[in-house]
Structures
1.
Amino acid sequence: MKLVCNVEVVNRLHANVNIRSSGKYLKSTLALGKEPKRDKDFFLIHFSSANKSGNKYRIKCIKQVFVKCLNEGKATIRFEEPPHDVCIKSEAIQLKCFLRLLKSCITGDADNSQLSNLSNISVTSVESAPIKMTIRDRSEFPIKGFPRTLEYLYLAGLKICNFRRDILLLSRLVLLDLSNNEIEKFPPEMGRMTSLSELYLSKNNLGLNVSVDWRWLLGPKITKTLKLLDISDNKIKYLPKAIWKLERLVTLKVNNNEISKMPATVGRIQTLRYLDISHNRLESLPCSLLQCRLEHIDISSNNFNFSTQIQLKENNLAAWQLYINSLTHLASKIVLKHKLFYAPNIIPFTLVEFLDNANMCICGNPVVSDEYYVIREFELKDYFRVVVFDNNRNSSIRFECFFCSSKCYIK
Ligand SMILES: [Zn+2]
């Protein structure tokens, strides 16, 4: 038998050490049942929104049942072990029926027809509410769609061409593995997934189109939760400038692509610790990276040895171009430096974009112009703990350096 009611569980142990209970009644279901093969072993199970797998109490452990306010639809069941008081608020008649059955369980003359086996009564049994799913063959896709309870979903190597939109409904999804498929694009709605923390998209076709729509990666929710992004082996030619918006990103794998230039904004991701940019076409790196506290960077198999295309135009650059430029530039630097709030509803959208795309000086201060920079070499080993680079070269790498002031330029 089940009783739909509101329940507050008070732990008497907590009361002893003066930790007050929250005083909150949760919408719950109480069920009475018995262990499958043991006829006299009765249980009370408490399901709530906070505990969907249910809390099991042995009827034998009931110490007392308080029914003083039964006519108001209130009762409390006190258990010896665990030391819980289960306070129930429900419709009075139903509660009376429930307690009558409970009484017969205690006295041992319960009518079997009203009590189901424990295995049958769970509201949401473990089988119907899985949190992990691995699909190894396309025939294994669930007909009714993915269970909403999923937190880990593995769909690797299934030759999927189109992103399955029912994945967007999985609000609890923490890990999504779609590596080794044939996906070219993701819907922008993906950026609103609320819990996504690890995203494995290696070996797909994300960079196949000339212009990549990156909105799926830069949405309002995903930028707050994503910690690992693997977009290696995707024929990607460039990364979006707004990648710095991934404010929790720790691991970024963009190896085995066709990237010739990293966005200068990448160093603004303060949480970044592991960066794999090996097997690309990079000739230099943005100086903002030196501001990252990277623990591991793999830069092997790039074009750092070639310097043909990089022209040293340092001598032609005036201080004005490098770190003064225009009044907008000066004002923007102040806005960014002091982290003043800005949004498209306060200032023009073009200005928002301008501020969003800001680079970093070698000192870490914002620089808004990305037109003028100076190439300087830095020894990567001086900056990062583990650097993986090609055997036949030293670890000094050319950096595109931006400057916020003459002081930084002279240094
Ligand atoms: Zn500076």
Note: The longest helix spans residues 92-107.
2.
Amino acid sequence: MTHSDFDSIVHLNQNALEGVGPLDNESLSLLVKMADQALVADHDGDIAGFVITLPPGAEYDSSRYRWFEDTLVDDYVYLDRIVVSDEHRRAGVASSLYEEVEGDLPIALEVYETNDVSLAFHESRGFEEIGALTDHGKTNLMLVREPEVDESAA
Ligand SMILES: CC(C)(COP(=O)(O)OP(=O)(O)OC[C@H]1O[C@@H](n2cnc3c(N)ncnc32)[C@H](O)[C@@H]1OP(=O)(O)O)[C@@H](O)C(=O)NCCC(=O)NCCS
């Protein structure tokens, strides 16, 4: 993700407020500075989707991030947001982005309890609910995916 992507990413984000919190260029810029991964999926020169992850210990003013900081004991990756544009959904774009961020660490994220599409997506990738947090009148389900164990490494 580069600075020249920011306008498109803010636009994508603001068209997906059923699933993610609002973003403007300034808050995106701050988020990317804190991020350990900020990736875009390119489709013929257009941005089909993006994902942003944060490491533990970031100065991120988010009650959901704090909840994971207070709850998880071992190292993990916080996935702040994933958005795929309307016209590229259900084509494996989010799955490809997740394959890039899923490594040896658990991944933590929250999903609005009303976001059935995201819940179906995350269930399909093996995420499990470990709690719930209500903030600003919205209930978030707190999900974690443990890394897959490589049986051949034993
Ligand atoms: C959730 C989101 C990122 C999924 O992106 P996507 O690129 O369409 O997802 P994929 O194509 O990789 O889907 C993989 C699997 O997830 C599940 N899934 C995805 N969309 C689904 C839907 N609309 N209904 C049911 N299951 C769905 C399916 O199991 C799917 O596999 P399949 O297509 O082989 O059946 C996308 O819908 C989105 O951007 N939503 C708005 C923003 C948002 O809610 N982000 C998540 C915040 S927590």
Note: The mean pLDDT is 95.
